[in-house]
Amino acid sequence: MKRGFSLIELLVVVVIIAILVGVATPYYSDYVKDSKRSKALQDLDALKQAVVLHNSQEDLPYLGIIGTDTANPLPTLGEKDFNGLMGRYLTFIPTDPWGKNYKLDPYACFVYSEGPSSSKSDDIREYYVKDLALNKIEWEDLDNDRTISETDLLYFHFNKSVYIQGDISANDFIIYENNEVATDPIPVLNMTFKQPHPAWSETQATDTVFICEVQAGTTVKLGVHALALKDELNVLHKYREVKYDRENSGFNLIRTEVEYVPTDATKPLRYAIRTNPVKIKPK
Length: 283
Prior knowledge:
- This protein folds into two domains: about 10-130, Glycoprotein, Type 4 Pilin, CATH 3.30.700.10; about 135-280, no CATH class.
- By secondary structure, it is of the alpha+beta class.
- It is built from two helices and 18 strands.
- The longest helix is centred in the N-terminal third of the chain and has 52 residues, at about 5-60.
- A hairpin with a 2-residue loop joins strand 9 (about 175) and strand 10.
- The protein has an eight-stranded mixed sheet with strand order 10-9-13-18-6-7-12-11, with no helix packed on it. It has a three-stranded antiparallel sheet with strand order 3-4-5, with helices on one face. The chain has a three-stranded antiparallel sheet with strand order 8-14-15, with no helix packed on it.
């Protein structure tokens, strides 16, 4: 006669299974979480490459779907940010592992998923322009005297939107000649900053180009001298990266924000880096 399992033996088996499930569940949960994050990063990399290809082929930054308001054609950011890339740059737009659409921030230059909870702390980002940097300086010869002189304009181009705390000052720069710090005599750059618009602030900082008016006494020469931001935190912190403020923006309103260090609300989390000297070129 075959003997069945006793109650004690069954209880032991159940306890062992329960222990194994209890031990394995956190590992499985972490595995699912990590696999979803990996899938999101793969999708974001594909979307990032599509944006990069568009920007290089079109020689224009991709801003998302541009609205139809001819007086104020703002990008319509939200649920269809990559539709403008379909056809030539994308054949398929994926959804993230949590069933939501991927999104674009054309000001801080990253593509992102809002993650499982849609809160900012859950964002998964992939930058297509990593660091904020000065990448071009142009000169406009308003008086046609072929030299950088009083009332001429200098255009400072950054590779992404930036909020400048205060203004662009000549004291923010080191002047170079032939890739060496210019000396004997030290060239002079005098200029005043012209803000992009009167209400400019870190909540409206979508600009990438800033204009300064040359003042008397300037001796910097076109094609000879180049400028680089000083490698000093108090200077670099002035030039602050901004991101799209999705909570306070709307269909006809774009708002930006600066992210600050959590433990110090006066220090920007992301700011300009120092690059090689940038030569002044005619506009």
